[in-house]
Amino acid sequence: MRAVFVAVVVAFLVSLLGTPIAIRAFTKLKAGQPIRTDGPQMHMAKKGTPTMGGVVFIVATVIAYVAGHIALVTLPKAQIGQVRPTITGLVLLGLFVFCGAVGFIDDFLKVRKRNSEGLKERGKLLGQLLVGAIFGVIAVWPTAAFKSTNNETVATTKLSFIRDIDWLELGRIGAIILFVLVIIAASNGVNLTDGLDGLATGTSVMVLSSYGFIGFWQYRHWCADPDYTAAYCYAVRDPLEIAMIAAAGAAACVGFLWWNASPARIFMGDTGALGLGGLIGGLAVATRTTLLLPIIGALFVIITMSVIIQRISYKTTGKRVFRMSPLQHHFELVGWSEVNIVIRFWIIGGIGVAIGLGIFYADFLSAVT
């Protein structure tokens, strides 16, 4: 618990205090967000607002991870070099950093070209595919250099809901393919949700917090814990690590939200959106709750589906279902204020998180009673 608390405090403070520095730096570098000319015209007032702010909460989370590990060391005069990271931490932070790096390239090209066209869809998808495949292999294959307490890998070879579904064996190749699909879906879902001040950030806070709770709950009821003797336990790898990273990511987003809330002084950009999606997808796989992710991340799913529906309808009938997609822009054109949309969408996101956590806890109660 101490490690999680330290990581949360450090992540929040680094993000809260580091974001103004990033605002000044990106403003000086003229890294302003280009605005789509075919989008809602009220967005033109945001032109020039610095972007790539996701760098701040990604860095804050990595620093918090190190601080949390230092807090775990109980030996006197402990040094940073004595703190050994786990393969779970490396996979989760690797997804966060390298999915964010794909987004950073996209943001950089947008800023350099001075328009909203960055990486082509194929280029962005290729980057996500590469990152997902590399960390998928690491997550699925046993690694001798990072031995597990309970001989578990970061990702399972079975499909999971609340835990592994024993009869749905995927094999290692199938598990890697599923891993890649989850990372691509989650990163694109958060990216599509981004676009209004604070919308993706606030929703990510709720989703990451829920995985922080799940990770910590699994840690308290962990099969590898010799002090835990109850019949019902969770066969996951490094649940405390999962809880620490998820909680640190949520806290870092809260610190960033202080400056990203309407009227935003900085945008997370694709750097932050793709990074957050990669982390969230990784957390779902690591906690063995892959099929629970669409419920916990319900808002991401709804907004992604609005884009899919719009494209299918336009290509097949030539007609649009929504005035504009993603869905949040439809409501802007209908006449809702940006703040109203964000708050109401946060409520939808919160309902999804509450239902997901309710299902997770109900499964535990049904097993122990």
Task: Please describe what this structure looks like.
The chain is mainly alpha-helical and 369 residues long. The protein has one domain. The protein has helices spanning 2-28, 54-72, 87-113, 121-140, 171-193, 199-220, 239-260, 269-286, 293-296, 298-317, 327-334, 338-368; strands spanning 158-160, 164-169. Strands 1-2 form a two-stranded antiparallel ribbon. Helix 2 (54-72) packs antiparallel against helix 7 and helix 6 packs parallel to helix 8. It starts with a helix and ends with a helix. The relative contact order is 0.16. Residues 77-82 have low confidence and may be disordered.
Main sheet, how many strands, which sense, barrel? 2 strands, antiparallel
Q: Mean pLDDT across all residues, rounded?
A: 88
Q: How many discrete structural domains? A: 1
Q: List the uncertain runs.
A: 77-82
Strand content: under 5%
- The residue fraction in helices comes out at 55-70%
Rg estimate, integer Å: 20 Å
Number of helical stretches of at least 4 residues:
12
Determine the structural class based on helices, strands and strand pairing.
Answer: mainly alpha
Order of helices and strands: HHHHEEHHHHHHHH
Outline of the structure:
This protein is about 65% helix and about 0% strand.
